[in-house]
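pinging the channel bc i need a second pair of eyes. not urgent but kinda urgent?? the chain im working w is below, pasted from the shared doc
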Amino acid sequence: MPQILPQLISLGTAVPPHRITQDDVLSILAVAKGQALPPRMAEILGNTGISQRHIAMPPEYYSDSRSWAKRAGVYETVAAQIFEAAAMQALARAHLQASDIGQIVFVSTTGTMTPSLPSRMISKMGFAPDTRCVPLFGYGCAGGVIGLGVAADLYRACPDKPVLLVSLELCSLAYDHARMDKKDMVALALFADGCAAAVIGAGSGPQLGAFASHVWPDTLDMMGWEIGDTGFDLVLARDIPVFVNSHFAPVCDDFIAKHGLTKADMAEPACHPGGGRVVDALADYVGHDLAATRKVLRDHGNMSSPTVLFVLEALLAAGPIEKPTLLTALGPGFVGAMGLLKP
């Protein structure tokens, strides 16, 4: 029986309409604190590598108290809008209709609905009634790479129709900024909203090769959420850049070597940019400046799971890949996710 080789046929991306610059954020934080930010904090928040981002609602929305119900209502409306925009762009680029898709993998950790968002989009967007929906929750920033691997596996299992991956996060709605402590200010200065979609099937795109993940023990306090009264309270460690070189690098080295490659064999990687210092640590590890990763971080901020797919879109826009391409992301668990694209 011939081996099924899933290929990345197309990508599509979308962001909500409200743009905010990093200077805007620093001003908003100062107003929220009732005084100018301490110089050291202003320096930290100003050196994120981010110039602008997009968020689900106008900035003034976030100054008011927001119940779980209000957040869920905004998530339902805005998520549906950018889901449709990114998915339709990916389908158009693949020269497909929604009815051509057999399965939808949906990645999101900043909101949840029952029935899931892709289930609600079946009729609205014209997917076939028997389309299988596979929601993935809880992977955070690692979800884009993990979701791409799951979509490739599902296509291998059922190659009769292409698979659609949609990775969507509305980080601005998830976090509770009522306390406005240092951790909340860092979250406000880093995270953004966006959606990426990918069509996986048979065609002329790059081949989706191996995917893997690694969870380190005793690292639950590195990244994640605790449930607050009106939203999620962010758990985010300060030493993630150090962790990249001390723990993630050897795991990634093993993954690359297992598939007969070295870092020198590969093209510019598509890395999830957690923040400026994390990108610097990843650049030191891979031996590449990561220009595409830095540009996505600068223009869109950290959108959590879809961000790595924005980076991949930027890399592929420059032309077909001619060498294997590494994908990386780090997320709650603490988990490292890795994948390979082949020319």
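so The mean pLDDT is 90. and The longest helix spans residues 68-93. — does that match what u expected or am i reading it wrong
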